[in-house]
User: Fold this.
Amino acid sequence: MDLTVIAYVVYLLISVALTIWVARTLSKNGRIFLSDVLRGDEKLADAVNHLLVVGFYLVNLGFVALYLNQDDAVTDARGLFEALSVKLGVVLLVLGVMHLGNVYVLNKIRRRGVMEREQTPPVPPQGWTGPTTGKGPGPWAAPATGSTGA
Assistant:
């Protein structure tokens, strides 16, 4: 069998296995993060998590398929390892960039949610403390200005 074909097969096996492993790891560990981002809505967190995993698979497996082409023929074992190292290195970098992009966007969403929660008062207002009409300054009066007789 031609060494170029062997390089293709090994590249596809390793790339697909890495993509599946990374997607499962991100899905399993990212669910808790998504639940926090989405304020505890577990069903929505599961749905978003599933959509992210599907998108992750589509983008990464599409890239793996497009990057399969080998310009030079592989003629020896050294060429096989060199071709595989370049291709797998690029795939790993793309997987890492995709992961960091997802975390960045989700962190932005999470920060926005935290800011909104901090702006909401912890207790609803219990009444109005404005001045009462015709009865003086109301419940809050300025301190009297006078000497304290020291």
Observations:
- The two ends are 106 Å apart (CA to CA).
- The chain has a mean pLDDT of 80.
- Residues 77-119 form the longest helix (43 residues).
- The CA atoms of residues 12 and 65 lie 8 Å apart.
